[in-house]
Amino acid sequence: MLAQVTSALALLLAASSVVAKPVTVKDSPVTMSFARRMNVTGGADILKMDRARATSLKVRSSTHGAKTKDELMKNAVGAAFGVPSTNQGVSYVVEVVIGTPPTTYDMLVDTGSSNTWICCEIDYFPSNTSFDTGNSVYVEYGSGVMLGEQYLDVVHIAPGFTITNQSLGVALIAEGFDGVDGLLGLGPQYLTYGNLFPDATTYVPTVVDNLYDQGVIPKPFIGISFQPTTVMNTTNGEITFGQVDQTKIQGQINYVPITETLPSAYYVGINQTITYGNHKTMVLNNTAGITDTGTTLLLLASDALATYQSLTGAVLDSDVGLLKLTPAQFANLQSLWFTIGDDTYEFTADAQIWPRTLNTAIGGTSDFVYLIVSDIGSDGGTGMDFINGMMFLERFYTAYDTLGNQFGIARTAETFVSVN
Ligand SMILES: *[C@@H]1O[C@H](CO)[C@@H](O)[C@H](O)[C@H]1NC(C)=O
Ligand SMILES: *[C@@H]1O[C@H](CO)[C@@H](O)[C@H](O)[C@H]1NC(C)=O
Ligand SMILES: *[C@@H]1O[C@H](CO)[C@@H](O)[C@H](O)[C@H]1NC(C)=O
Ligand SMILES: *[C@@H]1O[C@H](CO)[C@@H](O)[C@H](O)[C@H]1NC(C)=O
Ligand SMILES: *[C@@H]1O[C@H](CO)[C@@H](O)[C@H](O)[C@H]1NC(C)=O
Ligand SMILES: *[C@@H]1O[C@H](CO)[C@@H](O)[C@H](O)[C@H]1NC(C)=O
């Protein structure tokens, strides 16, 4: 399996190095505004979606060897039935302008998958900029499934920054994606392998690959910035393409190689150690997991979560679905420390809690403080023992450098703020 990833990677690196390098590249980063939208009645919904996703990330999606379009359709319908019955959740979205005439789609941002597709409320009309490849595209997400037809078309990432012939799935079935018009896949290109039908042995260049190959950005690189927020819906973040947005970080950005441990190695996976409190008590000892914009909470292996619970005294609120503390316990909550590469990042007590102004939005009360540290659903040792979801990423600036096969993290003005 590892050899597979490594050789896929080597192929991709070789492929990118033969591409003629661009003449003009923008000096400052190409950016997109990044918004959060919440449609929940309970924290249990958020956890359910996150866990379903964690489970599916451990098994890479593909067309599962379908031999005919009928089989593919049956797979999709079957998988759609497996989707959690609620569409409620927290979505991190960007606006992307696609096609001719230019049409705006609100798309989920997903570093855990790599196909880009559009759906639902907004019709897609093939035009003189589109090309029908004759392929179908199929992707399973745990909290959803998508089957569509593949087109190539223009995509406007930001005003003045356009790519042509971007692969797009135009969905026939998109289950589990209410309230958005598609998904922008920002993960590594090798995750697209096996998602086309009948052309099942090809890779599909991602939006980031095309931005790079077509000379719009200096390297295939994304930066994620999102400020912690205490309201349900806000446009509080930014995705940077091609380079770090220096205005968003404090100090240096620290890079570590993408982990070699499967299945985390398929995603924006890293090795990380987590300790708790002033005595730096071990919670997770140098293990692999991922950072993921498609996950809301900070998920830890069940045994690591049990350690965290015993250190903090947190108990599960089965109605809300999250761990909770009394205000007195919260007053004693200490920092988590994330060692990533040579640096250790403090994740403060304030960072570990659900915004108290939104307690009722998740079915909680003002008598308790709810925690965003949650259970991934299995003990450690799976090769994906944590997911640093958006509520972790909100405290830092993080970067994914596809060509360098590395992850970067920097502190921001929000790393230590108390807002929750
Ligand atoms: C937030 O956005 C969601 C999804 O678009 C919507 O259902 C909800 O009503 C919005 N909530 C608020 C408070 O605006
Ligand atoms: C495509 O069609 C649009 C009008 O629909 C026109 O404005 C544009 O010039 C055409 N582009 C090309 C490349 O033919
Ligand atoms: C897009 O791809 C199609 C099919 O490969 C090709 O015919 C067309 O020339 C390409 N368009 C551009 C602008 O590269
Ligand atoms: C919000 O959730 C409800 C219940 O699952 C769903 O019917 C509705 O479509 C969702 N709305 C949005 C905007 O996502
Ligand atoms: C990550 O941890 C694994 C298991 O301890 C180890 O094999 C690997 O070399 C470490 N580093 C990377 C970059 O994967
Ligand atoms: C963490 O793992 C390393 C290597 O396996 C081991 O030497 C060390 O004792 C462990 N630390 C703790 C606190 O468990």
From TrEMBL:
GO biological process, alphabetically ordered: proteolysis
Gene3D superfamilies: Acid Proteases
Domain Peptidase A1: 92-410
A GO MF label: aspartic-type endopeptidase activity
Active site: D110, D292
Origin: domain of life: Eukaryota
N-terminal signal peptide: 1-20
Pfam families: Asp
Keywords: Aspartyl protease, Hydrolase, Protease, Signal
Family membership noted in the UniProt record: Belongs to the peptidase A1 family.
Protein name: Peptidase A1 domain-containing protein
UniProt lineage: Eukaryota, Fungi, Dikarya, Basidiomycota, Agaricomycotina
